[in-house]
Amino acid sequence: MQLNQGESSLVFEGVLFKAYGGFYYVKKGEEIWECSLRGKFRLGKGTPALVGDRVRVTPVRGNTGRIDEVLPRKTELFRPPVANIDQAVIVFAAKNPEPNLALLDRFLVLAESADVAPVVCLNKADLLTGHREHEWLKLYRRIGYPIVITSTKQDQGLEELRELLMGKTSVFAGPSGVGKSSLLNAVQPGLELKTGEISNKLKRGKHTTRHVELLPLLRGGFVVDSPGFSSLDLPQMERVELGYHFPEFEVFREECKFNGCLHHHEPQCAVKLAVEQGLIQQDRYQHYLTFLQEVIEQERRY
Question: How does it assemble (predicted)?
């Protein structure tokens, strides 16, 4: 891009914190700039701008500008579409709606593949009536995933969650209706995010968040509230990569007979043996096999 001498001195860097209605809102210190995209982005050239991006902006008039460049990212998620995230707080409800562990495993793979640290959050803990609901949480804790158990009605786990968020850029993600917006409102009163109820007919949440937005926290850091989802595609990867996103496989992988073992049809596979011996949980392994087939089909398409 060629800038004349007067224009080049006005260009600034900022953080894209919201994209809505065809406009892009960039934060520069305490200032908020309403921006459009340079033509090359609208034509599909250059890196598409995502919430969380550091961008270069040329002022146009007043507090409006034009995004001319997206600066290099350290991380990128495609669901929700955000950049430069440190951690993903993956929220599921204890009940209403019931936890979908296959969907949880999908998001864990997505976060791990993007080098984003995952945190598993079990919300609506006030709905727990016994100890059986905790069994799956024990599994994920043994694997090594950080776990936080929360309830906005009982003020449970909120301080622990605040500490996890402090000084980091985090995305809150999970199905609709699990209470992501309610959690954020409780973590920082004043955000006043819209909340919704569970549909009695469909038994899943109604979408209350309509766009992705970066929200500043009083204790430092940012959070991204994002629309909920009921399905999630896996990121593009080579089939041999998938097993590396299941941390419990690691201790057994080196004992497999073949390098690049997919832990499926291969003989003398230490991971399959660990599943048979109960050292790797059967459902997690079945999710792995389902994901493996999807990754193989993706490879064939691309």
Answer: Monomer. Associates with 30S ribosomal subunit, binds 16S rRNA.
pLDDT in tens, 98-136: 889 999 999 999 999 999 999 999 999 988 876 555 678
CB atoms near residue 201 (< 10 Å): 6
Annotated binding site for Zn(2+): 256, 261, 263, 269
- Residue count of the chain, please give it: 302
Q: For residue 175, is the peptide bond before it cis, meaning its omega torsion is within 30 degrees of 0?
A: no
Domains in the chain: boundaries:
5-70, 76-225, 239-301
Binding-site sequence positions for GTP: 123-126, 174-182
**Residue 216 · residue 25 · CB < 8 Å:** no
pTM metric for this prediction: 0.81
Binding site members: 123-126, 174-182, 256, 261, 263, 269
76-225 is classed CATH 3.40.50.300: yes
